[in-house]
Amino acid sequence: MSLVMDTLRTSTITEELSDAEVEILEGLFEIQDYKSGEIIVQPGDKQADNLYILAHGDIEVKIESGNEESTIHVLKPGDLAGIITFVGGAASDISATLYAVGKTKVLSMARADFEKLINSHPMIVYKVMRGVVRNVHGIVRRVNSQSAELSNYIYRTHGRY
């Protein structure tokens, strides 16, 4: 199997797709290589509407806080990035910068290429977007859990701290 196919099979966006459907989707992705510390996506990028899937390595998600950057999350293989603008959000909504950690390979798919499937393969588009929603739901659950744990720590509730 190819790197693209292997990566797509680890991602939430293909959970409902048949092998034939994944092969159609495979042709829409490009592999991008990054060296450690290179910026993958940052606020103001032209290709802000691409969906990214980490294939190999790690990606640090950093935001500006005050005069410095803070890491808020580290993406692992199969994780998605660029979701907001891929689903139609404004590029001005991007507030995080993604940095490669070590040698990193990322799959990139332009929204315009994906949208070409709407008429020819609407069920692929539907199933992929369901996968994107599942991914976002997982992020929200993780952040809510971290928020509750931080609150428990700060207020020393539930006898855990």
List the helices and strands and how they pair.
Blueprint: H1 3-10, H2 19-26, E1 30-34, E2 39-41, E3 50-65, E4 68-75, E5 80-81, H3 83-86, E6 96-110, H4 111-115, H5 117-120, H6 122-155
Antiparallel strand pairs: 1-6, 2-6, 3-4, 3-5, 3-6
**Overall residue-averaged pLDDT value:** 87
Order of helices and strands: HHEEEEEHEHHH
Class inferred from helices and paired strands? alpha+beta
Under CATH, the topology can be stated as: Jelly Rolls
Count of individual beta strands? 6
Describe the structure.
The termini are far apart. The chain has one domain (3-155): Jelly Rolls (Sandwich), CATH 2.60.120. Strand 3 and strand 4 form a beta hairpin. The chain has helices at 3-10, 19-26, 83-86, 111-115, 117-120, 122-155, and strands spanning 30-34, 39-41, 50-65, 68-75, 80-81, 96-110. Strands 1, 2, 3, 4, 5 and 6 form a six-stranded antiparallel beta sheet that branches. It is an alpha+beta fold and 161 residues long. The protein is built from six helices and six strands; from the N terminus they run H-H-E-E-E-E-E-H-E-H-H-H.
